[in-house]
Amino acid sequence: MTDDNLPELTPLDPAFITTSRIASALGLLPFVVGAGVLEFAKLLPLGTFLVPVLLAYAFVAYTVPARKYWHWGYDMGTDRLRVVRGYMFYSDTIVPFGRIQHIDVDQGPIDRRYGLAKLTVHTAGNHNSTVALPGLAHADALAMREAIRAAIRQDVL
Amino acid sequence: MNHATEGPIDVTGQEGERLHISGLFVGFVSGLPQLFFPLFAAIFGVRKSDNPALIPIIIAAVLALSLFFRWLGWRRFRYHVGADDIRVEKGILNRTARSIPYDRIQDVSIEQKPLARMMGLSEVKFETGGGDGDDATLRFVTLEEANRLRALIRARKAGLSEAQDTAPMVEAEDAETIFAMDGKRVFILGLYSFSLIIFAVLGGLAQQFDFLLPFDLWDLKRWAGLAQESGMSVNTINGVGIAGQLILAFGAFTSLIFIGFATGVVRTYLREHGFRLTQTSKGFRRQRGLLTLTDVVMPTHRVQAAVVQTGPIRKRRGWHSLKFVSLAQDSKEESNYVAAPLATLDEVWRIAQVAGIHGPYGDEQLRTGAALHWIIQLLLLVPPLLIAMAALVIFADTAFAPTLLLLLLLVFATFMFWCDWRRYRFGLDDQQLYLRRGWWQQRLTLAPQVKVQSIEIAQGPLTRRLGLASLKFGIAGGTLEMIALPLSTAQAIRSAVMEKVAAVDYSAINRSH
C-alpha cells in the first residue's frame, strides 16, 4: 500500500475530529428533530423509530469523524502538495506548486473557535480544479500559503 | 499606500485597504430587486394584522437589515497589494483569505455600470486561469484606485518576467496553409454525418404549431380518406400482395436513408465549406463556413492536449478528426478546437506537430488495462438482474422460463465490456501521455506531460481490495483518466510524470515563444 519513494504523510490537527463532530452533529440535527416529532405523533409503537435514528445519529456524528480523521493526510514537499483522503473512496492527489493559480485560507465559525483553517488551492485543470485540505492549525495554513506563494515566485525568477 | 512587506504576514488584522464606502450604497440599490421576495413575504405575513402602520415598519426593517449586513460585509472586507501577490480577505462568519500571485493574473478588468459610474466608482476583476470563474472582484473602488491597481499589476508582472510580454506583435502575412478541405472532402464528411435530425425537428415543429394547421395532423382516418379520394384504399394496399408491400416498405426505407444522407451533406457544407487551417505567427487560424464565415485563431501555446477521433466505418477508409483541448470554447456545440474534421493520419500528425504534439511511435508503447476491472463491473450487474428475475416471478406471477430472457442482457453487457477492454490502451513516453478508449467512437487523447495540472490516484471500495486504481490527470479544458491500472503502476507513472511537471512553471508552459 505504501509508496516506495514518497515521504510519510503529516496527519491533520487532532482538533479536526472535534470540529467535524460539531459540524455533523449540527448539520444532522434537523433529522433527529423530525424523527422526534414523528415519534410523538405516535404513528408507530414507542421507540421503534427514534431509537434507530438516535443510534445512527450517534454513529455518524461521533464515530465517523474520528475515522475520517485517520484517513486524511498531507505532505508538503519542496515543489508539490500531496493530499490523501478517504478509505472507501480513496483519493491521493498531488498538485505541483508550479500549477497553482491561487490559494484560499478559509475559516468558518467552528474552525475559528478551535484555531483551525482550511487551505484550498486552485488549478487550471477541469479535474481537481480545487483541492481542499481542512483541519489545519490556522498558523500552519498561513505558513503553507506563504511557502507555496514563495515557490511560485521563485519559479518565475 | 503600497506595503512592500517582506516575509509572511497575516492580514487578518487591520492591514490592507477597504473598499470605497459609497460602494455600499451602489450595492444596496442594485441589490434591491433581490429584496422583493423577502419584502413580499414579510408583508404577506402581517396582512391579517389590524395595524396598517406595520407594513412601512416591516419594509424599513428589511431594508435596514440588508444595509446592516452589507455594512458588516464591507467592514470585514480588505484587500492588500503585497510584494508578490494580491490578497483579499472577506466573510462575516466564514472568513476567506485569498492570495493571487501577480504572475498568475492574466488580466485586470475594470467595469463601470451606470449607477457606479455616476458615483465615480468601478468594479475591478482579477482574472487567473483558475478552473472556476470566481477569482477575485473588488466591488467597488474609485476609478483612480482601479487604474492605479491595474497599472501596478501590469508593472509588477512586467518586472517579474521581462521577456514575457515582448512577443513580436508585428504581424507579417506569413500564413502557411497546413490543412484544407476541398469540395470532395467536405462531401465525404457529409456522408459520414448521416443524420435523421430533420424528422425530429419537423415532428417538434408539427407538435408545437399544429394548432396553426387547418386540419388535424394526427387524424389517421382523414389521411386514409385523402388516399381513398385519389384512388387508394386500405384494401388496395392489402391487395398489392406481399411483394408489393415489400417494395413499398423498401421505397420508404430508401427515401429515409436518402434524406438522412442529404441532411448530413447539407449541414456539413454549411459549416465546413472552404475549410482552411493556416499557421500564422500568432498560432493556428481556421476559416470555414458557407453562409456564416468563421475565423478563429488558437495560439499554439494554449493547446493543452490533442484528441484524435474516428468511427468504425471511417477508420477503414483511413479518416480521422483532430481537435485541440484548451481553456477556450470553440463554438456552442463543440468545446474543443476543431483543427481537422476529416483527415488522414499523416495529415493529423503533421498538424499536431505544429502544436508540439507527436503521434505514438507504435502500438507497442501502449498497454492494455487489467481485465479484472471490467469483470468486476460485469459481476456488479448480476445481483440486480437476479433480484429483478425474482421480483418478476414472485410479484408478477411470471413463469420462470421467460425471465431467463433477462440473462440476454448479461450476454450483451459481456460483449460490450469485452469490446471496451479490447480497445482500451494507455501509455506514456518521455514527453506525452496517451489514452485510447471506445470501440464504436474511437478516441485517442495525447497530452504533453508538462501541461498536466494535478494528478490523483483514486480507488473505489472494490478496486482497492483488488489492488487496482485509476489515475486522473487534471488538464486545463479537458479530462484524461487512466483506468484499470495496478496500484504500483499508477504510482510509478505518477512519480515519473510529476518529475516533468514540477520542473516547469504554469506561466512558462503557456507563454508564447
Provide tags for this entry.
heterodimer, A: 157 residues, alpha+beta, PH-domain like, three-stranded antiparallel beta sheet, 6 strands, B: 513 residues, seven-stranded antiparallel beta sheet, 43% helix, disordered N terminus
Brief sketch in words of this structure:
The complex is a heterodimer of chains A (157) and B (513). Helices cover 46% and strands 26% of the residues of chain A. By secondary structure, chain A is α+β, with helices and mostly antiparallel strands.
Oligomer: heterodimer
Poorly predicted tracts of residues of chain B:
1-14, 161-172
Strand content of chain A: 25-35%
CATH level-two architecture of the largest domain in chain B = Roll
Q: What's the rounded overall pLDDT mean of chain B?
A: 82
Q: List the chains of the largest interface with their residue counts.
A: A-B, 51 and 60 residues
Terminal CA distance of chain A: 38 Å
Radius of gyration of chain A: 20 Å
Relative helix content of chain A? 40-55%
Describe the overall structure.
The complex is a heterodimer of chains A (about 160) and B (about 525). Chain A has about 160 residues and is an alpha+beta fold. Chain A folds into 2 domains: about 15-70; about 75-155, PH-domain like (Roll), CATH 2.30.29.30. Chain A has 4 helices and 6 strands, in the order ααββββαββα. Chain A has helices at about 15-40, 50-70, 110-115, 140-155; strands spanning about 75, 80-85, 90-95, 100-105, 115-125, 130-135. Chain A has a 3-stranded antiparallel β-sheet. Chain A has a 3-stranded antiparallel β-sheet with strand order 4-5-6. In chain A, helix 1 packs antiparallel against helix 2. Chain A is elongated. Chain A starts with 14 loop residues before the first helix and ends with a helix. Chain B is an alpha+beta fold. Chain B folds into 3 domains: about 20-165, PH-domain like (Roll), CATH 2.30.29; about 190-270, no CATH class; about 365-510, PH-domain like (Roll). Helices cover about 45% and strands about 25% of the residues of chain B. Chain B has helices spanning about 20-30, 35-45, 55-75, 115-120, 145-160, 185-190, 195-210, 220-230, 235-240, 240-270, 310-315, 345-355, 370-395, 400-405, 405-425, 460-465, 485-500, 505-510, and strands spanning about 80, 85-90, 95-100, 105-110, 120-125, 135-140, 175-180, 275-280, 285-290, 295-300, 305-310, 320-325, 335-345, 365, 425-430, 430-435, 440-450, 455-460, 470-475, 480-485. In chain B, a hairpin with a 4-residue loop joins strand 2 and strand 3. In chain B, helix 1 (about 20-30) crosses helix 3, helix 6 packs across helix 10 and helix 13 runs antiparallel to helix 15. The longest helix of chain B has about 30 residues, at about 240-270. Chains A and B meet through strand 3, strand 4 and helix 4 of A and strand 3, strand 18, strand 19, strand 20 and helix 17 of B.
